[in-house]
Amino acid sequence: QVELVESGGGLVQAGGSLRLSCAASGRTFSSYHMAWFRQSPGKEREFVAGISWNGGNTYYADSVKGRFTGSRDNAKNTVYLQMNNLKPEDTAVYYCAAKPRGVGAGPWDYRYIEVWGQGTLVTVSS
């Protein structure tokens, strides 16, 4: 099983950019499809972006499509979330998650997430 540690959160003004990183250790990183989720105060955790095991396929929530880009570097055991044109409603704790390949209905079947990171806070001021 991998362990996940997010970094890169912080305070940014609306319209600004941040890049989140999630470093994995433990089992082979390429054995996992990766995803980013977020949770705002008083709201349920929601899906943000998915990145397939080799980065060849990505999938985004409608709310971030065109503004956020997910990627990964398997040589560095790291997945990224580039966030541009940030809005106050993007304020949340952002979590990365790992789902094993070959489990469930496909790479985006997040019922089978195996590991969550501890989260990193992103605050967007208006």
Written account of the structure:
With 126 residues, the chain is mainly β. It contains no helices and eleven strands. The protein is 0% helix and 50% strand.
Helix and strand topology:
Blueprint: E1 3-7, E2 10-13, E3 18-25, E4 32-39, E5 46-51, E6 58-60, E7 68-73, E8 78-83, E9 92-100, E10 115-116, E11 120-125
Parallel strand pairs: 2-11
Antiparallel strand pairs: 1-3, 3-8, 4-5, 4-9, 5-6, 7-8, 9-10, 9-11
**Over the alpha carbons, how many angstroms does the gyration radius reach?**
14 Å
* Total beta strands: 11
Distance between the termini: 40 Å
Most strands sheet = 7 strands, mixed
Q: Overall mean pLDDT score?
A: 95
Q: Unreliable stretches, pLDDT < 50, 5 or more residues?
A: none
What portion of residues belong to β-strands? over 45%
Instruction: Note the overall shape.
Output: globular
Helix/strand-derived class? mainly beta
Give me the strand/helix succession.
Answer: EEEEEEEEEEE
Instruction: Note the total helix count.
Output: 0
Helix content: under 10%
Brief synopsis:
With 126 residues, this protein is mainly β. It is 0% helix and 50% strand. The protein is built from no helices and 11 strands.
List keywords for this structure.
126 residues, mainly beta, seven-stranded mixed β-sheet, four-stranded antiparallel β-sheet
